[in-house]
Design brief:
Strand order of the largest sheet: 1-2
Strand content: under 5%
Order of helices and strands: HHHHHHHHHHHHHHEEHHHH
Structural class: mainly alpha
Largest sheet: 2 strands, antiparallel
Number of helices: 18
Number of strands: 2
Shape: globular
Helix content: 55-70%
């Protein structure tokens, strides 16, 4: 019987705010479209900080003017100009929370982005899909009306074999994220889950039990689809979780034998999530062949094959040690992400999956969105953004507490010694 470990001991943090994942798009620079001011330090202060003075107000106006130029650039005939404009929009949406600005332009921006997704090729489609994801993260349920246009287009592009694989991968992530933050219709979610599993299950064993061989771009698509599928499953009702569990719990271990490290790790963490969700319904859940599964996980957690890249081996061993403990003992993540004066605790595989998804789309901008974005803060139970100028009670560090206690003890000892000194004793009657 697996024992649930509520403390999540043993799981080491895999990410810090200084090493959050960023895509190649974040590192691209534009040659013929100026977005430098959007990404400048002056334009990076959060909206909650604007209005503190003329400099901040001017920076905000400059930020919005440049973003308007980028949005207008999405309608240009030149593919390169559109890509550069998309890059500027993507960086602006990922680095800063601009809900009020978007409310007035969401229809126009959505229309432009969808045209780039449908008519563009390769990198343009990748950028458009990511911008659509960011738009929904910015607006949440406020984007539910435009979501009805976004969702079918992302679904069509993801399943279209004529679309570049890297664009289909981004559409898979975008489809899941947009559904996660902007959809309340369970029927649509089920439809998306079916479409995503239709992609990654082609990496399951064939009828002859052999492992399929795919190109790196194809396995990346499968890993993206599996990541999106598990994200949506993290908030699915229990009846849907158990249905998906029954369909995939015996086949997901096939992906642990993939030649692609990304797909192996994604499969392992999805299994950890499924076991966590299943044990919420039945704490004794083990699956049909937990012994064989644990044996496979142990091999991956101690893999030292020289034909694998050193970085891949290290990443794989770290991940599968955690997954093994999750399956065997019910262990959960134990990670605290600090930002500003606040922090968010990642204390379940469900929460980890959601945090990883936001990191994937927002990149290093996740820090700013944790502080300001109402949608992101609601997901992690952080409440309303803390107003500027409000200083929460500072927690004393362990070092400070130790030295404070030592100083207090010394002062107390000295005071007591003085009080007990015979020279300070008052004689009754004197």
């Amino acid at each position: 019987m697996p024992k649930k470990n509520k403390k999540g001991k043993g799981l080491k943090p895999k990410a810090t705010l200084d090493s959050l994942p960023t895509s190649d798009d974040d590192r691209e620079t534009a040659d013929n479209w100026s977005t430098a001011s959007i990404l400048s330090d002056e334009g990076h202060s959060s909206l909650s900080e604007e209005g503190a003075g003329p400099d901040e107000s001017s920076a905000q106006e400059n930020f919005e003017d440049k973003l308007k130029d980028c949005i207008d650039g999405l309608a240009e005939k030149s593919a390169q100009t559109r890509k550069t404009a998309l890059d500027g929009v993507m960086k602006a949406l990922s680095k800063k929370y601009i809900m009020d600005f978007l409310l007035e332009r969401k229809v126009t921006l959505t229309d432009y982005l969808l045209k780039c997704l449908k008519k563009g090729k390769g990198d343009e489609q990748v950028l458009a899909a990511r911008c659509l994801s960011l738009l929904c993260i910015q607006m949440g349920l406020e984007a539910e009306d435009i979501f009805n246009e976004i969702q079918p287009q992302l679904l069509t592009a993801m399943t279209d074999n004529s679309v570049a694989l890297k664009a289909r991968s981004q559409c898979a992530i975008g489809l899941a994220v947009c559904n996660f933050v902007s959809c309340t219709d369970i029927d649509i979610v089920v439809k998306v889950l079916d479409a995503l599993e239709g992609i990654f299950k082609t990496s399951y064993r064939k009828g002859d039990k052999s492992i399929p061989s795919h190109t790196p771009d194809t396995t990346h698509l499968h890993a993206s689809a599996l990541s999106g599928w598990s994200l949506l499953l993290s908030i699915a009702p229990s009846f849907l979780v158990m249905k998906c569990l029954g369909k995939h719990i015996d086949h997901l271990p096939d992906l642990l034998h993939s030649s692609d490290v990304e797909l192996r790790i994604e499969a392992g963490e999805t299994l950890a999530l499924l076991y966590e969700l299943a044990r919420e319904e039945d704490e004794d859940f083990e699956g049909k062949d937990i012994d064989n599964l644990c044996e496979t996980l142990k091999k991956l957690a101690t893999d030292s094959n020289k034909y694998r890249a050193k970085k891949d081996r290290r990443q794989q061993r770290s991940s599968f040690r955690d997954v093994l403990r999750a399956v065997e003992e019910g262990d959960v993540p134990d990670l605290t992400i600090k930002f500003g004066t606040e922090s968010v605790v990642i204390d379940s595989w469900t929460r980890k999956k959601q945090y990883d998804a936001f990191c994937l789309v927002l990149g290093s901008g996740v820090y700013q969105h944790l502080q300001d974005n109402i949608v992101v803060r609601e997901v992690f139970g952080l409440g309303a953004p803390i107003p500027v100028g409000t200083k929460p009670v500072q927690k004393i560090t362990k070092w400070e507490r130790t030295h404070y206690n030592a100083a207090a003890f010394k002062a107390l000892t000295k005071a007591r010694s003085k009080h007990r000194d015979k020279r300070s004793v008052m004689v009754n009657g004197d």
